[in-house]
Amino acid sequence: IDLVVNHSSDEHAWFQESRDPASPKRDWYIWKPAKADGSPPNNWRSLFAGSAWEWDEKSKAYYLHLFSKKQPDLNWENAELREAVYTMMRWWLDKGLDGFRMDVVPFFSKDPGYPDYPEGFDGDALSYYAN
User: Fold this and answer.
1) Structure confidence by residue, pLDDT tens digits, 66-116
2) Where are the domains of the chain?
3) Which residues form the Glycosyl hydrolase family 13 catalytic domain (predicted)?
4) Lower Cβ count inside 10 Å, N or C end of the chain?
């Protein structure tokens, strides 16, 4: 089975819960405040097009999406999130699944400082969000 656990749907219950800043699931995704001028936390670009950050009016914060804005990135630094993913994987294995084809694994870990690309940068950005 294909397994993509770099991100979920923005319609998934986990993400919907994380939109509440007081939610225990808030840290299951990568939320950051806007810069002082209201712009995104950094200048990272989505692999699909445009900014890798989407403003969420309910949260009053940006969430990271390296792919589609409909696919917010999961925060693999969060131990509870990792355990929830492992539980889901074990469920499938207990059902008799032989294994997974893991997709976009290099994107799980991001540079924790979320640095801007250098001015005029137009190269391979994987070193910023594929650690």
Assistant:
1) 999 999 999 999 999 999 999 999 999 999 999 999 999 888 999 889 998
2) 2-109
3) 1-119
4) N
Q: Going by CATH, does the domain composed of 2-109 fall within 3.90.400.10?
A: yes
pLDDT, tens only, 41-71: 999 999 898 999 999 999 999 999 999 999 9
Looking at beta carbons, which pairs linking 78-86 to residues 24 or more positions away fall under 8 Å? Answer: 78/27, 78/28, 80/24, 80/27, 80/28, 81/27, 81/28, 84/14, 84/28, 85/5
d(CA 23, CA 86): 21
Q: List, as one string, the DSSP characters of 15-74.
A: HHHHTSTTSTTGGGB-EEPPPTTS--SS--B-SSSSBSEEEETTTTEEEE-SS-TTSPBB
